[in-house]
Amino acid sequence: MAVADFEKPEYYTNRELSWLDFNSRVLYEARDKSLPFLERLKFLSITSSNLDEFFMIRVASLKDMVHAKYNKKDIAGLTPSQQLEKIAKKAHELVHLQYTTYNRSLLPVLKQNKVEVVTEHEQLTPAQAEAADRYFEENVYPVLTPMAMDSSRPFPLIRNKTLNIGALISKKAEKEQEKDQVEFATVQVPSVLPRIIRLPDGEDGQKCVILLEEVIERNISRLFLNYDVVCAHPYRIMRNADLPIDEEDAADLLKEIQKQLKKRQWGEVIRLEIEDKMDPKLLKILKQEFDVKEDDIYRINGPLDLTFLMKLYGMEGMDEHRYKPYQPQPVPGMNDEEDIFTQIRRGDILLHHPYMTFDPVVQFVKQAAVDPDVLAIKQTLYRVSGHSPIVAALAQAAENGKQVSVLVELKARFDEENNIIWAKMLEKAGCHVIYGLLGLKTHSKITLVVRREEDGIRRYVHLGTGNYNDSTAKLYTDCGILTCSEPIGEDATAVFNMLSGYSEPKNWNRLVLAPLWLRDTFMRLIRRETEHARNHEPARIVAKMNSLCDKEIIAALYEASAAGVEIDLIIRGICCLKTGIPGVSETIHVRSIVGNFLEHARIFYFRNGGNEEFYMGSADWMPRNLDKRVEIMFPVEDPVLREKVRHILQVQLDDNVKAHILQPSGVYEKIDKRGKVLVNAQETFCEEAIVAAKTQAETVSSRVFIPLESEE
pTM of the prediction? Predict the structure, then answer.
């Protein structure tokens, strides 16, 4: 079969629809009655925040294409307008299922566990009503800014993602005919105040909470004293948040991004959420002012913006209804007594977060900052935490007189402002800061420490699949390696020379970079397996990643499958590949694991006729990662570490609890667990890490101290 046969649109799933399928898998966790009910609330909250970002970026991008009359079809043969039509249908179904889950499943379960979310302020007991009104008077009223619209006051700016209450008001008048003259007014629900307000307990010790917008709605007449409030309903908008940065004409990228960030508040409205019982007259005004079509209006049967559920998840005194927080364990073989450089010299160290602690990565930079023998530290930063110990250590290193070079990616979506703050701080401390590369996002995760030692200069390197973020390292599953391999050290130096000075070496040893030749390398590795299969040799590919939507890669996988290569794909999110197509993808199996941690690692295995190769890296199989970002893939060469990586992949392939399997129909289904030994990959890794740490602690404590000399 010719390669061209593998590129038919019917062999591919649209990227955006596949993402909505992923969010449905997250919603499945919220509907799973075997989970503690607070964990279910957490997953429902996640589906809501996921959907917000999807609309602000992906849907917004498609709308821009439609406005520009861009009609090029995607890999599934859909134009932007056709994609928007299908997205609207699927997204409305998803939102309906979200609120069905909230109203019919989670609210009753909360009530059974003595937690009541008051959905209508009219339901309050006298004592609760008094408490709510007092809270409004003392805390809310002074913060509110009601805004009216009339001939002298234009429609106010409604900010992206904010929750608002729209009202129709009429002047108090004796003449009956004047009461028909209504005006529009709106008030923003202040984000500086808690959205969940605790009320006096109900009967039988029932914990009662009410949402801030309900308290405001209850007291909204206080904001318009000379008016009658005809109706009041909450609403919320999503704006286009995709930054249109023209890097070619931007003399100063930092200033250009700061300017564009301000424009996010003015972006086109792409989604309007309203209470489903909103007065038609009020809706007509909103629809006209925001210029939204019917497909972009989401009528909500419940509270808008379910991300508030994350606050309920953290409610005190409810520990039995949550999973016990997992404490990342020490890395096997590492200890706090020796300096980290001595430990790395003994052999490469594999890190597997969050099962193993992220502390060695932080200590790597911290020790380098104060070590008198360290000459230079170089690092790429994509997303970091709010109080990053790594950034603080880099600043300290510069103040200690070391050469510190940091590439801060200003274009990291929704982290732009945070990264600008860090970049300025690092510059002030004396670091050399690079603001990314023209036309490319630097998404690679690499740190290089150059150290003077007795036998000369030695380079220590950390390479990872995840960000240098100590907070998300407790929530995202990622892998990394600490090494002082000379070939990798040489490559790491070349990477930073290329990033800072555009100088590319003629030869590379081990690291594979995008956008230079990572795509070609993947294609070569896949085609090599295809050739092995055609020669009747065992051939297998196992690839774990976040997303797969690159047409060239998928076509190569189809060709490999047609040749007989066994292919297992572990893909958390988007997957544009279809399984089970006769003669095309019969040997391809796709699974998505949605669990307590966010699957984020990228791991690749190629059988290679028995001469197996393992790789890890920062890139998914997506056009943006392979063609428009600086990414790094690195080999796992140490035999012991290779077996550990094999084990990680195998346990995920054995998972029959949290894995969803992609069917030939395009639907993801959970595995039938009847009669099977249950395997939950994330729980397995947690248990293994705890056992390894306990064994190591017992080994250390059992060591007998033998004096070097007799005291006699």
Answer: 0.92
